TrEMBL record:
The keyword Nucleotidyltransferase does not apply. The chain crosses the membrane at residues 428-447. It comes from Megalops atlanticus (Tarpon). This is Peptidase M20 dimerisation domain-containing protein. GO terms for molecular function: dipeptidase activity; metal ion binding. Keywords: Hydrolase, Membrane, Metal-binding, Protease, Signal, Transmembrane, Transmembrane helix. Gene3D superfamilies: 3.30.70.360, Zn peptidases. Belongs to the peptidase M20A family. Residues 233-390 form the Peptidase M20 dimerisation domain. Pfam families: M20_dimer, Peptidase_M20. GO terms for biological process: proteolysis. The keyword Signal applies. CDD domains: M20_dipept_like_CNDP (cd05676). PANTHER family: BETA-ALA-HIS DIPEPTIDASE (PTHR43270), BETA-ALA-HIS DIPEPTIDASE-LIKE (PTHR43270:SF16).
């Protein structure tokens, strides 16, 4: 908790380096802030506990009331600190039952503006994924619990803790009568865990109003690669593929019909198998050629990243990675494309030995994409490749390939002032911590299951 909070404060300070007005970074500002934080540590953790206790599970429309309740609580906290809030309507969703319900609104907030200061907009979300004790939680997921100096609770890191850290950072500035070095805006939603319905449309609609004066957006909603603090400077994009192979009109019995016709499942297995080899290489022609070449500067970045391969192997029960080095593994996860096969709809997957021949199967896989791959180009390459493999099989069945989601990859410039501020923030926060007795709280907020 305090780790986030200190980092938040340092980012605020760092962001002001371009404005001339404040004594940015000086210990005259920092000392009282740090003292305030240390003095209010218990209160901050208690508030996080109150937030975690609100079961804001966005995957279940029946729980959206709780999502809205927490958005209200968030808005109230911002208002108490002098911020202006607005609940932006993002439309409705039709449920499986046919009923149409209003989505939880998106909370937009801002504070008094000083034209001389840069404006920072902070994104966060207050919803969570479902969590039940039976899922493997050692403690009650909605009861924030400290175990060996770590705090466990659903949403504690993702994303309630970070959102609260920002609010507490503002509180610390105000309580110690320090001038905030930046203008602040917040965009807080309650549907992140189910795909942020309506958010993109809202940001488009407000591009010339709410977002028009925003210089930087900060997203503090990601995991660290190790127990060391980390800044995310890019994420891979993703396209999801559905490969449908259709044969006869009904499922058939292998004892009666097996052997006399081409089964859709064999076609599908061949198609899926043509996508990737045993070394993890994607076999779709042309796809790897778009990948931005690795620069020397970028290669060096990976050398300093802390990632204990042996420890991770043990933790995950993996005895062999496809790459031999730490750098190789991380690059495979972050800066090269990957292809994962997720499932086959229509396949027999229950226990036991049913002798069915499925009439229609849909293979599902996705490709994680990196700069400079274009989702539309990838889609075309994959479709052409699958069609070619299928044609070679001279199958009488029909093939249809469709896609959803075409999130583009992005990578940020590490020399951007915001990253420079972020780096400074993490380092200073860390230093300050190490000299205080709450060192054990440094890495305090963890959830015991990942989303
Ligand atoms: C949230 O606050 C609004 C008023 O701002 C109120 O109408 C609504 O009932 C509240 N929702 C919940 C779930 O508390
Ligand atoms: C939360 O857990 C603590 C023990 O860790 C227990 O004393 C407390 O009653 C629990 N609270 C709720 C609301 O279940
Ligand atoms: C905002 O969106 C409108 C409509 O899509 C577009 O015409 C305009 O160029 C956008 N403005 C900015 C600042 O991006
Ligand atoms: Zn999140």
């Amino acid at each position: 908790m305090a780790g986030f909070l200190l980092a938040a404060i340092m980012i605020l300070l760092g962001s002001s380096s371009s404005s001339s007005s404040s004594s940015s970074g000086s210990s005259a500002v920092l000392e009282p802030l740090f003292q305030y934080i240390h003095g209010h540590q218990n209160e901050f953790v208690q508030r996080l506990g109150e937030w975690v206790a609100i079961q804001s599970d966005s995957s279940d429309p029946a729980m959206w009331r709780e999502v809205k309740r927490l958005l209200n609580v968030t808005a109230q906290k911002i208002q108490e600190m002098g911020g202006r809030v607005e609940f932006a309507d993002v439309g409705t969703q039709q449920l499986a039952s046919g009923e149409t319900v209003a989505l939880p609104p998106v909370l937009l907030a801002d504070f008094e503006r000083d034209a001389r200061k840069p404006t920072l907009c902070i994104y966060g979300h207050v919803d969570v994924q479902p969590a039940k004790k039976e899922d493997g939680w050692v403690t009650d997921p909605y009861n924030l619990t400290e175990v060996n100096g770590n705090l466990y609770g659903r949403g504690a890191t993702d994303n309630k803790g970070p959102v609260l850290a920002w609010l507490h950072a503002v509180e610390a500035y105000q309580a110690t009568k320090q001038e905030l070095p930046v203008n602040l805006k917040f965009i807080i939603e309650g549907m992140e865990e189910t795909g942020s319905d309506g958010l993109e449309e809202l940001t488009r609609q407000r591009n010339e109003s709410f977002f028009s004066d925003v210089d930087y957006i900060v997203i503090s909603d990601n995991v660290w690669v190790s127990r060391r603090p980390a800044l995310t400077y890019g994420t891979r994009g993703s396209t999801y593929f559905f490969v449908e192979v259709k044969g006869v009109n009904q499922d058939l019995h292998s004892g009666v019909w097996g052997g006399c016709y081409q089964e859709p499942m064999s076609d599908l297995i061949a198609l899926l198998d043509s996508l990737i080899d045993h070394s993890g290489k994607i076999l779709v022609p042309g796809l790897n050629e778009a990948v931005a070449p690795l620069t020397e500067e970028e290669r060096k970045l990976y050398e300093n990243i802390h990632f204990d391969v042996e420890e991770v192997k043990k933790e995950m029960g993996i005895n062999h990675f496809l790459q031999d080095t730490k750098e190789g593994i991380l690059m495979a996860r972050w800066r090269y494309p990957s292809l994962s096969i997720h499932g086959i709809e229509g396949a027999f997957s229950d226990p036991g030995s049913k002798t069915v021949i499925p009439r229609r199967v849909i293979g599902k896989f996705s490709i994680r994409q990196v700069p400079n791959m274009e989702p539309a180009v990838v889609e075309r390459q994959v479709k052409e490749h699958l069609q070619q493999v299928f044609t070679k099989r001279k199958s009488p069945n029909s093939l249809a390939v469709t896609t959803t989601v075409g999130a583009k990859p992005w990578v940020a410039d590490l020399k951007d002032p915001q990253y420079v501020a972020g780096r400074k923030a993490v380092k200073a926060g860390l230093r300050n911590f190490i000299v205080t007795i709450i060192i054990n709280l440094l890495i305090s907020v963890f959830i015991s299951t990942t989303k």
